[in-house]
Amino acid sequence: MNLIIFGPPGAGKGTQSKFIADNFNLFQLSTGEFLRKEITNNSEIGKKIASIMNTGSLVSDEIVSDLIEKIISNKIYNNRIIFDGYPRSLDQAKNLDRLLKKYKQKIDIVLKLSVSLDTVKKRILERRNLEKRSDDSEDIAIKRYNTYEKSTEPVIEYYKKMNLLKVIDGERTIDQINKEIGDIIALI
Ligand code: AMP
Fold this sequence. Notes:
By secondary structure, the protein is α/β, with parallel strands linked by helices. It is built from 8 helices and 5 strands. It has helices spanning 13-24, 31-41, 44-53, 61-72, 90-102, 117-131, 138-161, 174-186, and strands at residues 3-6, 27-30, 81-84, 109-114, 165-169. It has a 5-stranded parallel sheet with strand order 2-3-1-4-5, with helices on both faces. 24% of the residues are buried. Adenosine monophosphate binds next to helix 2. The site of adenosine monophosphate (AMP) has 11 residues, from helix 2.
């Protein structure tokens, strides 16, 4: 089974992805993390990625697609990938379909963790009090939430039309969300 997980910052996407990966023996492909790894490797491609990521822009579709293909084509990860951070646009969604077809795979389910802006603000404030993270200011949180909602909307619509979308109420406790996701996956 391959799945995609969507959720704004503060929705608990990291926690839930880890739960799914551990419980269903899946591999979490977080594009942001993979790109950051390339940067620490200091490879030629890593240097190129760093110069783009440091400006806050998206890395080119080609670079991310090559990275995704490396994982999809690897037999170890065959049919057991959680896509996190990809696709981020309709072009990327169509490219993902093309790659999966090439390696005789498909997406089985798309999960969207849904939370209100008020909850995101509250959670980020709590985290800031605990960890004092410099990127957790309320202004930045609002900006990231709005950018996220706007950019993922067409992609979410795309999967809705394909009947693959499950919207999960992310306002509840971690355990309640774990349970719902576990039940959905067990049915696939
Ligand atoms: P994230 O950790 O998902 O917030 O991603 C961090 C950064 O990695 C983004 O700001 C982009 O520069 C880059 N990135 C991650 N995923 C993608 C993607 N699907 N397409 C293009 N750039 C991406």
